């Protein structure tokens, strides 16, 4: 008899299993009870939206200390309902341009959005850290035993990309960022780079949900061109 749990269905099931296993080797994620080509059954957790934010920050820093040899992942996965390309690259600016920004811009242009190219990253050479990949405040929570992460879109990339996304869509409280910077300080230039990293997610929302996100995309592009 199948255990009761939280059932998810869709084409991203196998990629999510892969991502949860990768994260689960380092930090706490929901246990996988069962899975198949188009479904995933996770343990049902009693999640709270708020809790020990410092502990979550320390958990994220622990995840980011897990590093890989190159940028990318051994398979493509999904960012929301969009396939995420994870082809291996030797340097981060090339990976982010070719596997993140370019595919989203191409999709946006197919949908009729006339958007300019943002400036490319230059002179930034981070370590390839293991990333959650989709870390907004709806993809982390708190149990009586501490924080937990879920719904990943994992790859090896610049850890700043995870931090940048935590600032989107409601953000995390200040004590989270204070604790992260105490555990693993962010380098100079993050406050500029974060806008380019978040452009990827804003473009994805534009492509998935339509022109309600167009103004935010345009503002971010304008900001990047002004920097």
Would you kindly provide a brief summary of this structure?
The protein is an alpha+beta fold and 227 residues long.
Structure characterization notes:
With 227 residues, this protein is α+β, with helices and mostly antiparallel strands. It has seven helices and nine strands. It has helices at residues 13-24, 53-64, 92-110, 159-166, 174-183, 190-209, 214-226, and strands at residues 6-9, 32-36, 39-42, 77-79, 82-84, 129-131, 140-143, 146-149, 155-157. Strands 1-3-2 form a three-stranded antiparallel β-sheet, with helices on one face. The chain has a two-stranded antiparallel ribbon with strand order 4-5. Strand 2 and strand 3 (39-42) form a beta hairpin. Helix 3 (92-110) packs parallel to helix 6 (190-209). It starts with 5 loop residues before the first strand and ends with a helix.
């Amino acid at each position: 008899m199948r255990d009761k749990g939280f059932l998810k269905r869709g084409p991203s099931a196998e990629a999510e299993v892969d991502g949860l296993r990768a994260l689960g080797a380092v930090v706490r994620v929901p246990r996988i009870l069962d899975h198949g080509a188009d479904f995933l059954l996770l343990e049902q957790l009693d999640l709270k939206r708020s809790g020990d934010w410092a502990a979550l920050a320390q958990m994220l820093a622990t995840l980011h200390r897990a590093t890989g040899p190159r940028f990318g992942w051994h398979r493509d996965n999904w960012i929301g309902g969009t396939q995420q390309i994870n082809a291996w690259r030797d340097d981060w600016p090339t990976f982010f341009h070719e596997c993140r920004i370019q595919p989203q811009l191409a999709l946006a242009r197919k949908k009729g959005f006339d958007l300019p190219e943002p400036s490319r990253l230059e002179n930034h050479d981070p370590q390839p850290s293991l990333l959650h990949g989709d870390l907004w405040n709806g993809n982390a929570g708190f149990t009586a035993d501490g924080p937990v992460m879920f719904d990943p879109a994992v790859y090896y990339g610049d850890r700043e990309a995870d931090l940048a996304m935590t600032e989107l869509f409601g953000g995390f409280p200040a004590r989270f960022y204070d604790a992260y910077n105490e555990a693993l300080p962010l380098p100079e230039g993050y406050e500029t780079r974060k806008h380019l990293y978040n452009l990827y997610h804003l473009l994805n929302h534009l492509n998935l949900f339509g022109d309600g996100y167009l103004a935010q995309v345009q503002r971010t592009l304008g900001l990047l061109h002004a920097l």
